[in-house]
Amino acid sequence: MLTLAADIEVLARFGRALADPIRCRLLLALREAPAYPSDLADALGISRTRLSNHLACLRDCGLVVAVPDGRRSRYELADARLGQALDDLRTAVLAVESDRACQEAAEKGCC
């Protein structure tokens, strides 16, 4: 059983990962199927360098893993339950009117 501090750290890591739209797109893509970095970069329309930085963040947060495949590495969610968690978050009903932005986020320029 995790302690409260450990629970908070897990949620904070997940929050940091989801705080960036590109990382969200990566997680959603990997929810569908494991993929190689070159394919992910092409699908997301970003450079491989930029993708590499985001994959490193997701690895550091413990959300994705690199699986060696010959000379390449394939990326996948670290735990299949993360896919379900992403689905649950995507479909959760927010307690905010859909036409209103989160004020704090809007002030920080992240929405």
Computed over alpha carbons, the radius of gyration is 15 Å
Structural class: mainly alpha
Strand content: 5-15%
Main sheet, how many strands, which sense, barrel? 2 strands, antiparallel
Overall strand count: 2
- CATH hierarchy: architecture: Orthogonal Bundle
Order of helices and strands: HHHHEEHH
CATH homologous superfamily, by name?
Winged helix-like DNA-binding domain superfamily/Winged helix DNA-binding domain
Characterize the overall form. Answer: globular
Query: Are there runs of 5+ residues with pLDDT below 50, and where?
Result: none
Task: Please report the distance between the alpha carbons of the first and last residues.
Answer: 36 Å
CATH class descriptor: Mainly Alpha
Report on the architecture of this protein.
This protein is mostly helical and 111 residues long. It has one domain (4-108): Orthogonal Bundle (Arc Repressor Mutant, subunit A). 59% of the residues lie in helices and 11% in strands. It has six helices and two strands. Strands 1-2 form a two-stranded antiparallel sheet. A hairpin with a 2-residue loop joins strand 1 (64-69) and strand 2. Helix 2 crosses helix 5 (81-91). The longest helix has 15 residues, at 4-18. It is globular.
